[in-house]
Amino acid sequence: MKIEKVTKNVSLKRSIDQGTDEQRQAVEAIIEKVRNEGDSAVRFFTEKFDGATLSTFKVTKEEMEAAYAHIDDEVLAALREAIGNIHRFHERQKRQSWLATEEDGTILGQKITPLDSVGVYVPGGTAAYPSSILMNVIPAQVAEVKNIVMVSPPDKDGNLPPGVLVAANELGVENIFKMGGAQAVAALAYGTESVPAVDKITGPGNIYVALAKRAVYGHVDIDMIAGPSEIVVLADENANPRYIAADLLSQAEHDALASSILVTPSQTLAEAVAIEVEKQLAELPRKEIASPSIRDYGAIYVTNDLDEAVAVVNELAPEHLEVLTEEPMQLLGKIRHAGAIFLGPYSSEPVGDYFAGPNHVLPTNGTARFSSPLNVDDFTKKSSIISYSKTALLANGKKISALARLEGLEAHARAVDIRLEEES
User: Which positions bind Zn(2+) (predicted)?
Assistant: First the structure.
């Protein structure tokens, strides 16, 4: 890995991939065809891109049950325990509707309502992602969303990975459709003969999925446009270089575009981690993916001191941040921008990815400066409640009219004035 000395003007952020003109045009064409032709268009694109010819898209109950034969009992037990952890964490996020009564009889409040329907995209390709199901479905269920629709690209035989089916079945998701890519996003947004239209689409995917989500936003809501995964490790001289190297590679194996960065004031640690990364990388099964990630987007930045290291972290605003210092809790108050913060040597990033409970759908590409992890609030909407009393209107009506006329909206002012005339 490259070892660099941080300078005052260093810029560590990458821009979000907007796709090429060709990719955007291809996605727009797919969406339009699915919108106009429904299932037949999805069937066409599934055969074209996934190599699977399907007569029906919906996963059957028999397929769900058969998937359990391919899952080890210990893995199933771990999956169920993870579900419990994630559910308990998100239960703590629930908010209640509220009303407040003023002395003049006015009632103000906020009504929190779950979304009617949500579509969850589960990526396929180089790996299966049961954890993605847990992190997207559980907060929606905690929010009390009644209709959850899941889509995921099939293999050439028209099947979904057993782990994906088992995870969905453990959560009670019944509407599961074998489709992926931009065509699946379009099906969720606009509906087809088989797929019910939803109000929001969540879940990660490739550039075509990201562009499709961006294209349908406004007709439906989306969670975020996620870029490649990233990890930043903030460490001092006390950290274990083997731990750091392993954690950096845990992100590098996701994607050749993933970013793995160490920020430290210790030159000695920087050199030891660089050596250890190369050593562990040589034995990594997914080194064909991890190697270009480390080469092109991996870095070790050496700072003058720990305070400067924290400043660099805040500039990066990383998706995942590990703090491997002697007293990590002491730095927590100084860290302003990170999607998820992992404190101490035993809080490796995969702990959060799979098991601890917090959501692993996190803001990327520096958007942690203004964005939050996927959470229960993302699956609700809020309505303001206003019940103004006669006393309040008589007391404040002229003020309201004055503000309306300040904006040149006479009809607004008269809507209040007419009540003052009638009631005074």
Answer: 251, 254, 353, 412
